[in-house]
Amino acid sequence: MSAEHRITPEDIITLLLEEMEAGIAPSLYTNLVPSVFDIYLHADDLDRLRPLERRMRDEAIRALTARISELNKAGGTRLKLSLVRDRTPKKQYEALGEWVLEFHENTDDDAAENALVIVSNFPRESDTADRVGTLTERITRRDSGGAISTTATQRTTNLDTRRATGILHANIAFEDETGAHTYQMTRDAIKIGRGAIDRWVDLKLGSQKDISREHLLIRRDAASGKFFIKDLSSLGTTVNGKRIPSSIEKVNGEDVDRNVEVPLPDKARIGLAGVLNLEFRAVR
Prior knowledge:
The chain is an alpha+beta fold. 17% of the residues lie in helices and 38% in strands. The protein has two domains: 3-155, hypothetical protein PF0899 fold (2-Layer Sandwich); 170-282, Tumour Suppressor Smad4 (Sandwich), CATH 2.60.200.20.
């Protein structure tokens, strides 16, 4: 990465402020402000700025807090009084929970091109998530040339795979580079893979790059209780040693999901690219 495109603490804080304002979710009585930010940097920038991490975090929180204060001093935005009988003429800006800023290395294949990536979220605790409704994760990138782009992904599930809630449909045991784990499937559909900054998966595997970012999808049919599996990968998925058909087809150079899935037995060993196995066990 050339010196002229090195990321500075000012770059980070400036983009954080822009991302915070762009991610505000208007509610009926308040304007809800995202307070959780994951900051992804190229390895070279992360190493260079690591000694300044505490100072950057402190100054960023100071700037974020000051910006909310400025927005509220400006009067906020008007309540829809036709819907709300309230003497308060303006709704205020409110950050849900304490500020959380975490710095990470960008390990994606295009990390050199995306010098700075910021992912913003609302806190995922149940008490605040209920107030926000469907969570929207925003991803803002500043590339090596300084251009900024933003995408948004809606999520309606808890990202913490250790906190299974609801009815247990299946257990998935596996061992990756971080150790042995058991994932509890409580949703009717889950996506599994390495994940990435902009590729969300329910079950994120810490493993070799042979495993795709989005490798496979397991679906439970609510009416019958039967399970199905879909291969989304580039290097393949097996069930009890037999390779299943890929659901992805190249069309004009783009990956297109043809929605091809096959039945998944209640007890199955699922192989991912020949490098990792998942032991799937349905719960009846």
